[in-house]
Design brief:
heterodimer; A: mainly alpha; 2 domains; 76% helix; 0% strand; B: alpha+beta; 4-stranded antiparallel sheet; elongated; disordered C terminus
C-alpha cells in the first residue's frame, strides 16, 4: 500500500509546523521552562510526528518528506530523552574556587601518575647529563639552554640594560599561548591511549632534570631557584594537570576494570577534562605574567632570596588551593567526590 | 561496517537516520573556516596597526593573543551559539550532533575542538582525516572523545506534486479496480523511482530521458495491464505521470487538515 502523499502532508503539516515552532523556541532560549500543558503538547506533537515518520517510512519511500520528518523527530528526541542536567549559568568564582579543585581531587590518582612520569623524566635527564655532559645539545636542543650556566649568570648579573624593555607584554603573551598550546596537546594526545601524553610529560621532565643538573653542577643552584621558582611552581603543575587530563582520557579509552561502554566512559569524564584544561589556562596566564615581569630579572635588580620566597609562597598557596579549596558544602551534583 | 547514515532507534521504536558528512566535505568546511579566521585576523591587523602607533608592544601582544583566542575559540563559540555549526559547516549544510541524538553539550563542543590539536597532526588534518575515513561513523579523534558526529542536512522541501500532476487528464483512473491493483502491487521503492524520475526529468539528456521513461513505463505496464483504450497513444512519460498520480494521490477525498491548529 502506498500513502496518499498530498493528503498525508496536508494532514500532518499543522502538527509538524507547531513542533518546529516549539523546537525553535527551545533552541533559541534554552533557559526557558515549559509549563505542564506545553510539555504535554510538545510530547504529543513529538509522538504524532514520530508516528508520521514511521508511516511514511513503511508505506512510501518519498525521501524529502521523510528527511524533513527525520530532522524534526531527531531534534525533538534530543530534547525529550536528554537525561543530563541542563547547563546552568556559569559563575566564574564558584567554578574556580569550588568546581576546579574538586575536579582535580576527584582524579588525583591521574595527577600522581602524571607527577611520577615527569619525575622519571627528570631523573633520566639529570642522570644522563651528569654521566655525559656532552649530551647536552641532544637532551635540550634549545639555543638559550645550551650556554654555560656560569657564563650566563655572569652576563645576567652584569647586564646594564633591560633586554626585555619594550617587549615584556609580547614576551608574556607568547609564553602564555605557547604553554597553553603545549598543555592542550598534552591533553589531546591522551587519545593515543596515553602514549603521546606520557612522552610529552617524560620529555618535559627530561629537559627540567637536565637543566637543573646543569646549573647545580656549575654551582648556580641559587640562580636556578631564583630563575625558575617564581613562574615554574605554577607552570609545571599546570602542565602536570594537563597531563592528568590526558591520562584521564587515556584511562577512559582503555576502560580497564570498567563495565561501562566506551561512550559512557568518555561522557563521564568530558566535563572534568574541560574543567581541568580551563584551570590550566588560568594558571598559565598567571605563570606567563610572572615569567615575563619577574623571573627574567636577577640580582642586583631583585635579590634571589626574594624571588625564591615569592615562589615558595606561590607553591604553598597553590597546594592549599588544590588540596583544600571547595571542601565545604557541596553545591552541585557533579562536584560530589567519587 | 562503514555507512553513510547514522541510525538512531527511539524508545518508541521509531528509527530515524542522519546523513553523515564525509572527510572531503568536512575538509572543505574547515578550509572555509580557516579563510574566515584569516579574514578576521586581517581586519584585526589593520585595526592594531593604528594602535601600534601608540604602543607597539601592546599592539603585537594583543595580536598574538587574539590570534590564539580566535583560532581556538572560533569553533567553540560558533558551534555553541549556532548549535553545532560554524560558518563553513553552515555553508555546506553540516552540523555537529550528539552521537546518540541527544542535546549537544558545551563540554562536547570544547573537547572536540581542543582535540583538533592531535587530529591536525602532522599537517592538514592527516590524523583526523584518516581516522574519519576509517571510522564507521566518520568521526575524527575529537568526535570519538566528545561522542559527536557531523551530519549533512540537505535542503528539505516538500515535493511539488501539484506542479507535476495537476490539471492532467489521467486515462488510468477510468479503471479504478486496476488502479487499486497497481497501488497494491507497487512497492514504495518502485513508486519512489517513478516519482524521482518525474521530479528530475529536466536534468536528463533528451535521449537518456526517452530511454529511462521507456523502461519505467514498460516496467509499470507489466505490473498491471490496462485496456488498450487507456494506454493507446499515451507517451511513456505521460504514462508514468499517470502511474504516479494513481500511486500518490487519491481523488475525491477530503484534504482539509485536521487537528487543533485549524
Amino acid at each position: 500500500m502506498i500513502v496518499d502523499l498530498q493528503r498525508f502532508i496536508a494532514a500532518g503539516r499543522p502538527f509538524w509546523a507547531e513542533l518546529e515552532r516549539m523546537l525553535g523556541r527551545l533552541e533559541a532560549e534554552p533557559d526557558e521552562r515549559m509549563t505542564l500543558p506545553q510539555l504535554q503538547l510538545f510530547h504529543h506533537l513529538y509522538e504524532r510526528t514520530a508516528a508520521d515518520l514511521a508511516k511514511i517510512t513503511t508505506l512510501s519511500s518519498e525521501p524529502e518528506t521523510r528527511r524533513y520528518l527525520e530532522n524534526l523527530v531527531a531534534r525533538a528526541y534530543g530534547e525529550i530523552h536528554e537525561t543530563r542536567e541542563k547547563q546552568r549559568r556559569f559563575f566564574p568564582l564558584q567554578w574556580f574556587f569550588q568546581t576546579l579543585p574538586r575536579t582535580f581531587r576527584r582524579h588525583v590518582r591521574a595527577f600522581y601518575l602524571s607527577v611520577a612520569i615527569t619525575l622519571a623524566g627528570c631523573a633520566f635527564g639529570g642522570l644522563a647529563l651528569a654521566f655525559d655532559p656532552d649530551a647536552k645539545p641532544v637532551l635540550m636542543p634549545f639555543s638559550h639552554l645550551l650556554q654555560d650556566p656560569a657564563k650566563r649568570v655572569a652576563e645576567e648579573e652584569h647586564a646594564t640594560r633591560d633586554r626585555l624593555a619594550g617587549f615584556k607584554t609580547t614576551f608574556s603573551v607568547e609564553l602564555m599561548t605557547h604553554n597553553t598550546k603545549i598543555s592542550i596537546l598534552t591533553l589531546a594526545l591522551g587519545m593515543t591511549w596515553g602514549v603521546g601524553t606520557i612522552i610529552m610529560l617524560f620529555y618535559n621532565g627530561v629537559i627540567l632534570g637536565a637543566v637543573a643538573v646543569d646549573y647545580i653542577r656549575a654551582g648556580q643552584t641559587k640562580f636556578l631557584l631564583g630563575w625558575l621558582m617564581p613562574h615554574g611552581v605554577v607552570e609545571i603543575p599546570a602542565i602536570l594537570i594537563a597531563g592528568q587530563a590526558g591520562l584521564m582520557l587515556a584511562l577512559a579509552l582503555i576502560g580497564r576494570g570498567s563495565r561501562a561502554s566506551l561512550k559512557t566512559r568518555l561522557r563521564e569524564i568530558s566535563g572534568d577534562i574541560v574543567t581541568l584544561i580551563f584551570g590550566v589556562g588560568v594558571l598559565l596566564v598567571w605563570a606567563g605574567f610572572v615569567e615575563a615581569f619577574l623571573s627574567q630579572y636577577h640580582e642586583p635588580v631583585i635579590p634571589y632570596e626574594a624571588k625564591i620566597a615569592f615562589g615558595a609562597v606561590e607553591l604553598i598557596l597553590l597546594s592549599l588551593f588544590l588540596a583544600r579549596s571547595g571542601t565545604g558544602k557541596k553545591t552541585a551534583p557533579e562536584d560530589r567526590e567519587a | 561496517m562503514k555507512t553513510s547514515s547514522l541510525f538512531i532507534r527511539t524508545p518508541e521504536g521509531i528509527v530515524f537516520s542522519q546523513l553523515l558528512a564525509g572527510p572531503v566535505t568536512r575538509f572543505f568546511a574547515w578550509f572555509i573556516d580557516q579563510l574566515c579566521i584569516s579574514a578576521a585576523m586581517s581586519v584585526l591587523g589593520i585595526a592594531l596597526n593604528l594602535l601600534e602607533l601608540i604602543n607597539g608592544n601592546f599592539a603585537i601582544a594583543l595580536y598574538v593573543i587574539s590570534y590564539f583566542v580566535i583560532s581556538i575559540g572560533y569553533g567553540i563559540f560558533l558551534e555553541w551559539t549556532w548549535r553545532g555549526q560554524t560558518i563553513g559547516k553552515r555553508l555546506l549544510r553540516l552540523r555537529v550532533v550528539d552521537v546518540e541524538g541527544m542535546r549537544l553539550q558545551f563540554n562536547q563542543i570544547v573537547v572536540r575542538n581542543l582535540l583538533r590539536f592531535v587530529d591536525a597532526l602532522p599537517a592538514f588534518y592527516f590524523v583526523g582525516g584518516l581516522t574519519c575515513w576509517l571510522n564507521s561513523k566518520c568521526q575524527r579523534l575529537g568526535d570519538i572523545a566528545a561522542n559527536t558526529v557531523v551530519i549533512r542536512s540537505p535542503r528539505v522541501a516538500e515535493p511539488d506534486l501539484d506542479q507535476l500532476l495537476a490539471g492532467k487528464y489521467n486515462s488510468l483512473r477510468h479503471y479504478p479496480h486496476l488502479a487499486a491493483r497497481l497501488r497494491q502491487r507497487t512497492s514504495p521503492a518502485e513508486a519512489d523511482v517513478a516519482l524521482q524520475a518525474l521530479l528530475r526529468r529536466e536534468e536528463f539528456d533528451p535521449a537518456a530521458r526517452v530511454e529511462l521513461f521507456g523502461e519505467l513505463a514498460g516496467h509499470f505496464r507489466a505490473r498491471v495491464e490496462f485496456p488498450a483504450e487507456a494506454t493507446d497513444g499515451v507517451a511513456d512519460e505521460q504514462y508514468l505521470r499517470n502511474v504516479v498520480d494513481v500511486l500518490y494521490r487519491t481523488r475525491g477525498e477530503n484534504h482539509t487538515p485536521a487537528g487543533p491548529f485549524q
